Automatic annotation (TrEMBL):
It comes from Marine Group III euryarchaeote CG-Bathy1. Its main location: cytoplasm. Gene3D superfamilies: 3.40.1280.10, Hypothetical protein af1432. The lineage of its organism: Archaea, Methanobacteriati, Thermoplasmatota, Thermoplasmata, Candidatus Thermoprofundales. It catalyses: cytidine(56) in tRNA + S-adenosyl-L-methionine = 2'-O-methylcytidine(56) in tRNA + S-adenosyl-L-homocysteine + H(+). Residues 189-296 form the HD domain. Keywords: Cytoplasm, Methyltransferase, S-adenosyl-L-methionine, Transferase, tRNA processing. It is found in: Cytoplasm. Its EC number is 2.1.1.206. NCBIfam families: HDIG. This is tRNA (cytidine(56)-2'-O)-methyltransferase.
């Protein structure tokens, strides 16, 4: 998908605070890379920065007093959402094929004529009066069909529930260790988790990932071994974390840390519950890679780990681990063995 940035123009600070805030939240939630607000409004800036910090993601928020110049300087295509544009069903297929960055212009009550003139596409999301929030949501949802995947690196995350409001949080180090005590995890396993967590946090900081998620994920990655020592400790640990309302990003780390992850076919063959056992987030990849470098609390090289896997005839797993190690090493600019 092309990079998408939203430009909100014509904002009236005294009248539009609520609706403009919703435009910004919609842009973030539906997968836009960022938003520029014109004119500036410090109250909205503060709100969006707080939401991004709390729920995670890398949403870029800025402002400008020169929206016309901002459009002139945009290197890519400009799409203006308006009730008076070309029909969505006819024009959107052309926009979907754009490879260049896209600037989506969302106006307030009335936009200047130059907005229509400077846009490459004046796009009508329906020809009946409705909210600019709805228009932006429809556009972004069609541009990014995976928008609902969301982020997993915020301080809190919404957990789907049929019956009640459920927010999962990132536990503190003390709370994570208390959870180990509650599960009666062996001391040597806890010490291993501490070693993996310490390295994971260093790597996460270097990679610009969420170091808190990586650290707590490292602390809890083997909590399933309190119940079983087999490979199934991954999904067992995930279940323990879910029952404690642990952040989904940390649950994902626990469930996907074994080796360099377990493929869908392997999980099915092993009798695992349906789930995602391959590391998808940066934090999950970091913890999995760091876990491979420890035998207990003692560091080992990736080649040593691969030698062990080869003796068990786990060739595919060894190949995945090697690829993951190379990926992390490239991201930090140094062989992870030496980090």
């Amino acid at each position: 998908m092309s990079k998408i940035h939203v430009l909100r123009i014509g904002h009236r600070p005294k009248r539009d605070k609520r609706i403009t805030t919703h435009v910004c939240l919609t842009a973030r939630a539906f997968g836009a890379d960022g938003l520029t607000l014109s004119p500036p409004d410090s109250r909205i800036t503060e709100t969006i920065e707080k939401v991004t910090e709390k729920f995670g993601g890398s949403f870029e928020f800025e402002d400008t007093r020169q929206p016309k110049q901002f459009i002139d300087n945009w290197e890519g295509k400009v799409v203006h959402l308006t009730m008076f544009g070309m029909p969505f069903v006819e024009t959107f297929p052309l926009i979907k094929k754009i490879k260049e960055p896209i600037l989506v212009v969302v106006g307030a009550e009335k936009v200047p004529a130059w907005t229509f003139e400077k846009a490459d596409y004046n796009l009508s999301v329906g020809n009946q009066p409705h909210s600019e929030v709805a228009a932006l949501a429809v556009f972004l949802q069609n541009m990014n069909e995976n928008w609902e995947g969301g982020t997993k690196d915020g301080k809190v995350a919404v957990v789907p529930s049929l019956y009640y409001r459920h927010l999962a949080k990132t536990p503190t180090e003390s709370q994570a260790l208390t959870l180990h005590a509650k599960a009666k995890t062996q001391k040597k396993i806890v010490e291993h988790c501490k070693a993996v967590a310490k390295l994971s946090r260093k790597v996460a900081i270097k990679m610009g990932a969420n170091s808190d998620i990586a650290y707590i994920g490292g602390l809890l990655h083997d909590i399933g071994k309190a119940k079983t020592k087999g490979i199934e400790h991954a999904h067992v640990g995930g279940s323990i974390a879910r029952e404690e309302s642990i952040h989904p990003g940390i649950v994902h780390i626990i469930e996907s840390h074994v080796g360099a992850g377990i493929t869908k076919s392997e999980a099915k063959r092993l009798g695992f519950p349906e789930g995602v056992y391959m590391p998808k987030t940066k934090e999950a990849k970091i913890v999995a890679a760091c876990d491979n470098l420890f035998n207990g609390t003692k560091r080992q090289t990736i080649s040593k780990r691969n030698e062990w896997l080869q003796t068990k005839k786990l060739t595919d797993a060894a190949s995945r681990i090697k690829r993951l190690h190379k990926y992390i090493s490239k991201e930090i600019g140094k062989d992870l063995d030496q980090f």
